[in-house]
Amino acid sequence: MLSPDEIMQLVQSMIWLLAGVGVFIVGMNFMGDALEKSAGTGMKRLLERISNNRFSGVGIGAGVTAIIQSSSATSVMVIGLVNAGVMTLMQATPIIMGANIGTTITGVLVALKNDYFNMAMYTLAFAGVMMGFVQKEKVKIAGSLCSGLGLIFVGLNVMSSEQAFGNPLVENMFTEIFKMIDFPLLLILVGIIFTALIQSSSASTGVVITMVGASVLPLDLALFIILGANIGTCVTALLASMGANANSKRVALIHFTFNVIGTVLFTAIIWLFREPVVNFLVSVFPGDDPMSLQMRVSLFHVVFNVSTTVVLLPFVKQLVNYSCLIIKDKKEEKETLSLKYVDDRLLSMPPVALMQVKKEIDYMYGLVEENTRLAFAAIDTGSGVHSEQVSKNEEIIDFTNGALTRFLIRLSVNMEESDEKVIGSYFHVLNDLERIGDHAENFHEIGIEMLGKKIAFSDTARSGIADMRDHILQMFTISKDAFENLRKDELSQLTVLEEEVDEMKKALIASHFARLAEGNCSADVSPYYSSLILGLERVADHLVNVGFSIMNPTGSEKDEM
């Protein structure tokens, strides 16, 4: 029976232990956010190289996870990309496998902990805090990285201190607990529950490695808990897939199935050959010092994830087929509007989200250009055959403008200064494209109304409109290329075309009124003609704004060229 003093000591030790875990997780988040910001461009390049090559998929998954230090975050990001229709299940599965390999980096870092390493990390944490006072954005990011890495080891040291695992009462308590649950399936369950609760397999692995290093947890028992942690980390992805489409749920199921199969295989091996496995790990890292004890667990974690990937990588197609068999496609009761490339789950990955926003704008751009061409066709032929398509496109354009604007507002929180400028330019581009879409709809309505009233433009008027239309369509091509590929060299040509459109507007309006005065033009077509010419000139202005958005959010730099 424990005395009141001993109970108080236990409570204090548990508080220290929880504090250590908390500091460790905060450090992980700090470091992950800083790495994500500093390596944002690299992550974009990695994800842009997504292909059907399963080996490159594994590499991308491992690389991204090594950058952000969270396989759960990578899984959620992949679910978002699949939900947005950017990535297929065949492409997503190897990335999920690679994410499990990337997350082992944390375990290796934790296992390297010793007195000299700790001193270096404390110094790094202090330097990181000091760097946080510098105004320069890159220095602040570097400071967050240093602070995060330092806090990880501060948390580990708190956990392994005399006040926590170093307390004999705590050691005895955990020894008795593990004696009671010295059964593989129970240990795996402990790993699953603990990881699911803290939502981080890296953190739970760090705790297990620290416990082994403090001689609180025997190595053979720790191996089973590590296996359970790999299943527990799937909870985040499973939760993220709720409310998503069938393919996103399949990604979460594949992630869960992959880790369960790996756990079952290794559980069988360790259960049958526990002593040889432990002896092998001890032979690789002999000695009783904390680092040797910790490296054994870290080595097992690496071997488990790499081996599981090697074994299951040839069966990617079978895993995809299995997920499709379990999760059926639902019949769409009603077609609902949704963003094509953007998903809210990508908000946790700003560099990736920004990349997808640009794809969504490119898609919206295509719809705006299509509606403009269809409107010209209605004016030329006096036919409303494309009315339904124009209305459908306009509905998508309006929806995309509103939904993407709301997404950008949420994304703009805590962004780098350079990315804030990009977001600012995207706001203006969305507004310009939406306005062009409105003009296109108006042009189409002009064609339909003139058809209904059985009136038409004169040949002279048609010729002028055709010249202006050709300029506008040429500007569409140049502006879109400049925006998509950051082609600043094309902006001068865009400016020249816009100035020519301005001159054409003046000349066409003047000649139109001259024809009216001479009685060579019907007054009935005058409002339509004027509205069309003025509208085309405004479309040209909006296209210039879109093109110049790559230099300035408002496109105001065009006058400086």
Any chance you could write out the topology, listing elements then pairs?
Blueprint: H1 4-38, H2 40-48, H3 54-68, H4 71-83, H5 89-102, H6 104-111, H7 115-131, H8 137-159, H9 168-180, H10 184-198, H11 201-213, H12 219-232, H13 234-240, H14 246-272, H15 274-284, H16 290-312, H17 316-326, H18 350-381, H19 387-411, H20 417-453, H21 459-485, H22 491-518, H23 526-548
Summarize the structure in words.
- The protein is elongated and about 110 Å long.
- It has 561 residues and is an all-alpha fold.
- 78% of the residues lie in helices and 0% in strands.
- Helix 13 packs antiparallel against helix 14.
- The longest helix is centred in the C-terminal third of the chain and has 37 residues.
- The N and C termini lie far apart (85 Å).
- The C terminus is likely disordered.
- It has two domains: 317 residues, no CATH class; 217 residues, Up-down Bundle (Methane Monooxygenase Hydroxylase, Chain G, domain 1), CATH 1.20.58.
- The chain has 23 helices and no strands.
Task: Describe the structure in brief.
With 561 residues, this protein is mostly helical. The protein is built from 23 helices and no strands. The protein has 2 domains: 10-326, no CATH class; 344-560, Methane Monooxygenase Hydroxylase, Chain G, domain 1 (Up-down Bundle), CATH 1.20.58.220.
* Major sheet characteristics: none
Give the SSE order as H and E letters.
HHHHHHHHHHHHHHHHHHHHHHH
- The tally of helices reads 23
Q: What overall form do the CA principal axes indicate?
A: elongated
Q: Give the fraction of residues assigned to helices.
A: over 70%
Supply the helix-strand structural class: mainly alpha
Number of strands: 0
Question: Low-confidence parts, pLDDT < 50 over ≥5 residues?
Answer: 556-561
Give Rg in angstroms.
Answer: 31 Å
The total domain count is 2
Report the sheet-strand fraction. Answer: under 5%
**Mean pLDDT, nearest integer?**
81
* Termini Cα gap: 85 Å
